[in-house]
Structures are given as C-alpha cells and as structure tokens.
C-alpha cells in the first residue's frame, strides 16, 4: 500500500505577524521550531512512513522559498546520512533513499479544491492511496500506527481522518486557543471508529443549539460527541474509491462545491453519508491519536511557543544535569533548556533560560531571556529583558527594553527603554495603513492587560525602566 | 436553592428503603382490555404484571412499598390484599394508596408529596416492569454519585440494547445524552421513530459547557422507568405543576433548568441483565417470549413465584402446569406455557404461545405466537396467529384470527369467521366515561386543554358516541357477542406506516411491527404527548393559540374545563381572602388562571361571585359575624374584583344575574338581604349602573324560579327607588 503524500502549506493566518500574512513574514511552513523549519518535521515523518512520493503544495509566492528550504533539507539529510552510515545507527533510511519530493504552486485554492485536484489525478498519481498532511504538525507518533489503522479500516470506508487531543501544557480556559468544535464519531466493530459529523462553533452559534440528526442516532445509537478533539487535517484516502464517489454525483461534487469548502468540510460531507441515506454508504473512518503520543499542530502562536518549549524540555532531559555547571560567572549563561543558533554571539552576564535563539543573532550584555523565541538575525542590545516573547527576524531591540508576553514583528525596531506587556508590536506596513499599531493580543494566559492595549512605546522614557508590573506606565 | 441544599444534608440515609410503584401507566395502549382491568393486572405469561415488579422489589431489599393506584384502584387494592405480599411473610410492607384524581405521573407525584410519605431516597418504578437487574449495584452507583455530586437527585436505570430491540419502546423512542465519563445525563429528548420524519436533537450549547470531555448520544437504551429518586423529586413536581410526564417533562425540565441546577445520572445496566417494560402490545409480545425463553431468569414460569402456580419446565422451553390435558395427537412446540386445567384437543398445534388456565382448545387448532388468557375457549379448527384472546372469550369453530387481532373479555366470535388483521373486539361498547377517562387521561386532558385536532376529535367520537361501536354481525357472526373497538383512524395509521418500515429480517420482529402499526392508540398517545410537550414547553405559544381554539368550545361541550376553572379560581380566592392577600395579587392570579385554562370572563365572574357569596354564607352560618358585618367584611375589599371583570353593560347584567343565583343558594333567611346589600354596594361603587339594574330586573332570567324571585324581593325597593329618583330628575328638567 503506497501513499502519495500531499503536504499542504497554508498561509498561517493564526501565526501573524510572523507568517506571510504580513509582508515581513515568513512562509508558515518555514517558521522554525527549535531552529528547524517546521516542514522538516513533516518531511522527517514522511520519511519514516516511506512515502515514495511527496508533493508540497503552496502558493506561487512561497514556492521558491520552500524549494530552497527543501534543497537545504536534502543537503542536511545527506550529510546526516553520511554520518549515520558511520555510526551504523539508521541504515533503513539509506536503503530506501529519500523520497521524491516536488513542489507545486497553486494559488488561491481552498483546501477542498486541492482535494479535488488530488482526486482528479491532476497532481500526478503514482499511488492508489494518498495522504493529505498539513505542513505544521509535529508528532512522535510513528506513521505506521496511522497507516496500519488505515489498512484495518472497513473496506467500505473511503478514507480515514485523524484527530488528536491537545497534549501540550496550554491552558485553554475559554476555548480561545483551540477551536471548540464538536466532533461526532462512533465506535464500530473491532476497535474501529467512524466519523459521523463535525459541527463547528460557528454552526452552533448560528443555530443556537447543537443539532444532532435523529437519523444518525438511529444508525449509530451510541455516538460520541467530543469537544476536545482537534482536527489534525491528516487524511488518508483511497484514490479510486473517492473518485468513484465524486463521479457518481457530478452535480453535487461540482467545481463550485469544492471551491467554497475546506478539506474538513468535504470530509464532513463524506462522513455524513454514513447515516444520511437509507442504505449504508461508504464513508470515512476515524482515528484518534493515542494519548501516549505527542501530537501538535503549530497553527497558532501559543502552540508554536509551546512546541518550542517542548523541544527544549526534551533537550534538557536529554542533557540531564551534567552540563549545567557554568564555570565562568562573567560569560553568558545558557540553560540546558535553551538553544542558541549558529553565528550568534552572547554578551557578558547574559542569561538564557527556556529560550531558543536563532542563528546570526547578536545579544548584548546582561540580557535576560526567559521562555522566549528569538528568530534569526536579531540584535538585542544590553540590559534587555524578554519574557515569554516571540521576536521576529532581524528585529532590533534597543537597550534597557523590557518586554513581557510580546510578539514583535520581523524587522521591527524596539526603541530604547521600551516597556511592554502583552502587546504585538507591528512595523509600518508597505501600505502605510497601519502605523505602529500595537493591539492587544489577549492570549489566554494574560487576559488582564487589556487596559494597556493603546500602549505606544514612544511615550515611555527611561524613568520607567524599572517598572516591572507596568502599573505606572501612564 | 440554598435552603434546599441544607435540607439535603439533613436527610441522612434512612434505613428504610421505600419503593413507589405507579400501578397506572396513564396511557391507553392496552385498550380495550384495560377498560376492565388495569394494565398491571394483565397476565404476562399467566402471571399478573405487577407480580414481576413486586418480585423485583423483593430482591432489591426494599422495606416499604407504596402502590399508587388510580385507574381501577380498587381492583389493584383487592388484588394486593389477597396476594402473598400482604401476608406476614412478605419481605416488605405493602401499602396501597388510592390516588383517584391523578391523571399523570406528575399528578401522582404531587399527591405523593402532599401525603408526605417519603422519608429518604426512594425507588420509583412503574407496575409493568420485568427485570432481573442486580439492584444493589444500582444503589451503590447511586450512593457513589451522590457522594461526588451533591445536586444529584435521580438515578435512572437504563439497559443496553440495540436501537430496534424488540423490548425497546418503538412508540416513543428517546435519546439520552450522557457524559461519557460520569454517566451524568446532559439532555433527554424523544425522537421520531426509525422510519419517522427527519428531525434533529437540539441541544442548547449552554448545557454542553460543563461537559469535561466527551459525551455520548445513546439511542440504544431501554428505559424501563426504574429510578432512584431523592425526596426532592416530588417537591420539584409540586413546584412545577405543569410537569406531567416523568421523562419528557420532569427529566427534560430538570436538565434544562437554569435555576434548579440538579443533576440526573444514568445507570447503564449490564447487557447480561434483563430489563424491559410492558408498555405496548409489541413489548407485551416480546417480553412474553423472553420470559418463555428464560432471558429474564429467575423470572421464568417454572419459578412459580405466584402462589398456586405449578409450572414445570420441559425441554424446548415448554412449561406446563398440573392437570393439563393434552390429546395424544396434539403438538406443543417450543416456547409455550399452558396453565392448569386447560385441555388441548386432537391434532392441535401450539407454538410460541401462552395458554391460560381452564382454557379449552379444540381439535386441529393452530395457535402461533398468541396469548390466550384464562377461561377462554378455542373451538375446533381455529387458527390464531399473533393474536390475543382475553379471558372467558370464545372463538367458535373454524374461525381465523389474523395477526394483530385482540379479542376482549367474554367476546364470542361466531363460527367460521375470519377476523381481519388488527381488529379489536370488545364485549360491549365502552361508554362508561369514568373508566375510560381514567385510562385515556392523556386524550381527555388534551381535549381539556384545547388541543383537539382532527385526530383527537376522532378519538372523542369513539368515546362519546357509542353507536360507532356497532355490533357487526358480518364480522363476528350471528352467534357472536361483541363489537369492534375503534380508537381512531385505524386504517390511516396502517396505510401510513406500511411499507415505510424497513422489514427486519426476523419474522417475529416483523409481526411486532405490524402489531405496533395496528395499535393506533399508541400513535395517538404519542402525538398527544408530543403536543403536550410543545405546550408545556412554550407557554407563550399556548396563550396565543388559545384564542383560535376557544371558538371550538362555544358549544359548551367541554364544560369540564370550565368546572376545573371554577374550582381552581374559587380555591384561589379563598386563599386570597383567608390570607388577606392584596387585591392585585388575587387579580393577577385569577387572570393567569383564566388565560391558562382559556375561559371567558363570565367564568371568572361566576367563580368570584360564588367565592364571595359563599364566604358570607360561611361567616353567617358559623355564627362568626352577623349578616351585615359578614357582608361588609367580605365585600368592602373584594367587591373591587368585579371592577376588573366587567367591561360592558352585558357583563354587568350578567354579573347581577350571577350574584342573584348565588345568593339564591344561600339560606332563605338572609339570602335576600345579602343580595340587596350587594346590589346596593355595587351601585354605589359604580360597578353597575341604573340601566344595568333595570335590564336585569326586567330580564326573564332574574325571575325564572321561585327562589330567584324570593331573593330579589328585597331588591325591589331599591329598583323602585332608583326609578323614582330618575323620574324626579327627569321631572326637574
């Protein structure tokens, strides 16, 4: 059973201001997690799955970037493989050779349309089965688990959708971080599950109620509704079966049907076939990532941050306590739970904890970085304190600034002595429509700082540097 | 709700465990047989249904059993008094409570609350449950949940089955939405049957908010109405006087209430345990077969838990009592029970059937999957297929009963007749309104409330015009006794459902379905129920719809609800006077009542005048006050009620007329005096005007009887005086 893996690179709407939705941003697929572009994790996973062919779908703008990144990835792989060969650790990857990867640019397509593309074989199909993958998932779940589940699905099932539960340590009190969708599925014989329906929060708000269809409960009398399951967007499908279904009802599955729909909706409609009709129709199997596995999708800033920390935690555990001794009190201190990229310099007495610093950065003296994510080529001057911040590429942070829970857009210059808490600092856009607006990010962790949303960094002078709580900001 | 929570703490586990058995189902599904015997005394595998419930209670370590009897209450009472349960050896104390007024589970619960019998958590069960579940597990579950959740008030016992399980109610299937982890019930909704309309279960998102993780939508549970309730349950019924049904009103109401914040849990019994409720012909058939097939062991015929039974078990689930006479060439096949002193003639074949005691089965009779109750006579060459022959009925030779036929008590089917499928025959037309009303409380109530749609109208026809139940000689023959029982649009029901139902592969299931279709009283009940649901759910809608419906009542055919109103209104006013409420409150209450029962102001006036005049009469009769003082005490304040009840001249005349007749019913000694004072007072208060008094005085009604004339005698002076005064003023001009 060979799969054609299709990796969908989205725009990253929830990863602003770091993704391509801002002109300074980077393609979502290339945003780094623990200093590696996130797509590499996906490609690694694909490699473990031995997918013979991988197609990366993105928009034409980012095609070049992605291709470049893929080139890097392959190069690194080869280097690593060479190293691996010496240590005799992983020969399998070598035997198999790397998969054939190509990049296709499709502009302004909904994920539904891409799905249609795949099924209509317009993306050259050497395989009978395909796997649609997002570009933003990271998991330690071996792909074989899912492939095996797909193999074991009922013959009548067209495909299999994978859901997961949030395994990261993120508090999500008001369902702001993770969408509160209601997934309805039912256990069927021999441990398999079947997807029945998906209701989004919007559906519920619109109808003011959760409307479960009665027909469904007749067909599946013991259906489970979950609000905690998250859509992984991983879908395994059978090319032949699905294209047959689409051909059966050409009026229904028209081009306009796909153009307005996301992949999830298309799959939901397929899933509804399981109970809508008087006779059983082929439908969609359902799989939930087991709780013991880590699975997350970097589809918003909180998860991105947490994913980075997750890797740092792993790293810290791996290194153990051995390395923590810092002999020199003057030199910079980098904790075991932190990573510093290549060509990055750290000044004296700088302290780095639970933080990832990209490559090519220059960090001044007495800088305190805690639980932050610093992308490449960032300049941080002396006495800066960052806590729980994401700093975009090529940002310059002038001395004595203190940022807590802030997101700083790429290429932004934070002026001297800035004090900020819970803000998103955006640079002038090319359109010139927004001028250094900082808006309240209102993340789940700090909901009480709404009063500071109009905080403009220019207004602050040095006298307030020592204010840590921001109470005297006005 | 704070005081309530306190109360809960006070109710420390009582050692006694009480069970409340609702012997009445408040349904009409077993008509016409239930016109004679209550459902709980109908024989199921030759044992009255209630025995199964009591047997279960005996195993459940219950200490006290209260049987709430309403329809045929005396019969239940008599039965229990004679049974072993009333004896000293009984594992529990049995009390029967006659609650003849109750028309629904809600009424029964309110009655229960009024009686104050409940001392702690109790078991609420209906008198038609057949189950062998291990109740101690349920109790444990209940206790455990109670520890976790202080607001827990009900544990429902549900048993797992497939959605179209034969013992599951296909009449009003319902879904339970449960928290997957805790089994807390989040929502309850009845849904249309499997082949019914497409609709949806609508859950308010607010209800979903406190769900931790996952919930399940269960449509595969048999709800046999076995609940452990806390003492709050009757109270909640009391507080919500519109709750009628245990599930659709109470459970749903509690779950969706913003204020109550009480929780209900579901105990889902092991699938190895049996639980079902005999609530329709379908389930009657299915459960009978299950008992014969020993699914509900130890509830099997050969355990002989009814005194005097002597069933023995033979291979192939054949049960025979003593003194059964089987002809040499007769064949008794699998799953059959035959009571003592019954005889089966040569060449007869009986399979999957239950034959009562003292039955006489002739020669070459074929009985398939049928139920023949005590003392019935089946003559030679008859064929019974999926039929029920009630006690002492007689099927004459060469007749055939097609599937779904119900032959009532003492009916005689003539020779060589073929009774078409789904016919129901009764001995004599069912006209005794009392009995019928009780059984058909749903319909009657619905009519009360003015929901009489086409279907109900037809129901009413069959009830009120006995001529519909004609003796049809062509059907049962010249020598037959009995009439067809109609309960409504039988034919429609049949043709509607035929074909729509996906035919399950099993033959018996199909037959069940057919039985089900035939029993259109079932359908009527469920429609009535759903109407009820919508009504109680949306009182606003009810108000707006009443005006449209009220026209149907102009004929006065439905004096019943008016009586209800008068009763209620008088009670309200009595309360108001007694407790010295303020006028506005009383008015508001009256008005609400008026709108909810949808009566005209005439009724309101009638009730008010009755209440006030009766009050005066009360004071005078008991000697508390003299006539004048009594009048003043009552009328000074409460007379103003009338001000808001009369609007035009006609109303005012009507009021005088009503007061006159009320006063006429007082003692002759002071009736006239009171009336005079009332009229005078009303005139002085400008509630009535001269013209009204004249019109009334001159009307025929006011002088229709001697009594009325006597009462108005005194008032003559007043009228005279008024007239004089008018003339004088005229003269002056």
From TrEMBL, chain A:
Residues 465-474 have a biased composition (Polar residues). InterPro entries: eIF2B_gamma, LbH_EIF2B3/5, NTP_transferase_dom, Nucleotide-diphossugar_trans. Residues 435-474 are annotated as: Disordered. The keyword Cytoplasm applies. Residues 10-97 form the Nucleotidyl transferase domain. One of its GO terms (biological process) is cytoplasmic translational initiation. Belongs to the eIF-2B gamma/epsilon subunits family. This is Translation initiation factor eIF2B subunit gamma. Acts as a component of the translation initiation factor 2B (eIF2B) complex, which catalyzes the exchange of GDP for GTP on the eukaryotic initiation factor 2 (eIF2) complex gamma subunit. Its guanine nucleotide exchange factor activity is repressed when bound to eIF2 complex phosphorylated on the alpha subunit, thereby limiting the amount of methionyl-initiator methionine tRNA available to the ribosome and consequently global translation is repressed. The gene is Piso0_002371. One of its GO terms (molecular function) is guanyl-nucleotide exchange factor activity. Component of the translation initiation factor 2B (eIF2B) complex which is a heterodecamer of two sets of five different subunits: alpha, beta, gamma, delta and epsilon. Subunits alpha, beta and delta comprise a regulatory subcomplex and subunits epsilon and gamma comprise a catalytic subcomplex. Within the complex, the hexameric regulatory complex resides at the center, with the two heterodimeric catalytic subcomplexes bound on opposite sides. Residues 446-462 have a biased composition (Acidic residues). Its main location: cytoplasm. Pfam families: LbH_EIF2B (PF25084), NTP_transferase (PF00483).
Automatic annotation (TrEMBL), chain B:
GO terms for molecular function: guanyl-nucleotide exchange factor activity; translation initiation factor activity; translation initiation factor binding. Belongs to the eIF-2B gamma/epsilon subunits family. Pfam families: LbH_EIF2B, NTP_transferase, W2. InterPro entries: ARM-type_fold, eIF-2B_epsilon_N, eIF2B_epsilon, LbH_EIF2B3/5, NTP_transferase_dom, Nucleotide-diphossugar_trans, W2_domain, W2_eIF2B_epsilon. Component of the translation initiation factor 2B (eIF2B) complex which is a heterodecamer of two sets of five different subunits: alpha, beta, gamma, delta and epsilon. Subunits alpha, beta and delta comprise a regulatory subcomplex and subunits epsilon and gamma comprise a catalytic subcomplex. Within the complex, the hexameric regulatory complex resides at the center, with the two heterodimeric catalytic subcomplexes bound on opposite sides. Residues 452-461 have a biased composition (Basic and acidic residues). Keywords: Cytoplasm, Initiation factor, Protein biosynthesis. Residues 435-474, 486-505, 527-546 are annotated as: Disordered. This is Translation initiation factor eIF2B subunit epsilon. CDD domains: eIF-2B_epsilon_N, W2_eIF2B_epsilon. The gene is Piso0_001703. SMART domains: eIF5C. Residues 559-732 form the W2 domain. Residues 529-543 have a biased composition (Basic residues).
